[in-house]
Amino acid sequence: MPDVMSDIRLIGVGVGPGDPELVTVKGVNALRAAEVVVVPVMDSGERGRAEATVLHYVPQEKIVRVVFALNERTDRSRREAAWDAAGEQVAELLRRHGSLAFATIGDPNVYSTFTYLAQTIVESVPGVVVETVPGITAMQDLAARSGAVLTEGTEPLTLVPVTAGAAVLKDALAGPGTVVAYKFGRQAAEVAEALRETGRIGDAVWGSALGLAQESIRPAEELDGEPLPYLSTLIAPARREGGRGGKL
């Protein structure tokens, strides 16, 4: 039990999209320094991407698996109950150990489970200090692996979760700059249609399971309407004319 409340720290560590070599040095140090590393798992119990990545750097006995309703999007009461239970479990771990690391895929401040957990913990554990260690995002990894340039010069960059609806993506594609779509696997047909309607499909690329054995990176033109893995990522680069430095 910590002697002073300011010793209680919840550290969200971004562990990247799946390739263990993409965890930052700071992230590895935070994981190894923590007495306990919490990893989120679905109620089905299978090992998630965050846990698989963490296991490259810390022993299994330091890891605590906490069930989150990661795949619950229709039953709000069930989702809330699962979040409350997960929050209380993490809160109890904090009271016992004083601090812990929470591993999340990608970055803890970009569409992350950690954000909701931190909000819950701040309300239930007085004096807790919340910190984050940034991680490589899927869009950065896909850009590197596919050769797609995310931004040049004055181009904007728009990130859209397709779980918000295909219309949100279509609006983004109609605008300037590069558009990145997350979580679009189950709506692959609608995404392909939006790309074609806006004339953006030619240079677009999608990828899933980046850095893992089952990695798939393909031109968006090959989208045939079949569902893809949920955590698929799409990059639709900006329309670029004028040669090198055309938008400086």
Any overview of this molecule?
It is a single chain. The strands form two sheets. The protein has a five-stranded parallel beta sheet, with helices on both faces. The mean pLDDT is 89. The radius of gyration is 20 Å and the shape is elongated. The termini are far apart. 31% of the residues lie in helices and 20% in strands. It is α/β, with parallel strands linked by helices. The relative contact order is 0.16. The protein contains seven helices and ten strands.
Class of secondary structure makeup? alpha/beta
Mean pLDDT: 89
Tell me the radius of gyration.
Answer: 20 Å
Q: What sort of overall outline do the alpha carbons produce when their principal axes are compared?
A: elongated
- Total helical segments: 7
Strand % is 15-25%
Count the E strands: 10
Bin the helical content: 25-40%
Topology as a string of helices (H) and strands (E): EHEHEHEHEHEHEHEEE
Strand arrangement, major sheet: 3-2-4-1-5
Low-confidence stretches: none
How far apart lie the N and C ends? Answer: 55 Å
The largest sheet is: 5 strands, parallel
Quick tags:
single chain, 248 residues, alpha/beta, five-stranded parallel β-sheet, five-stranded mixed β-sheet, 10 strands
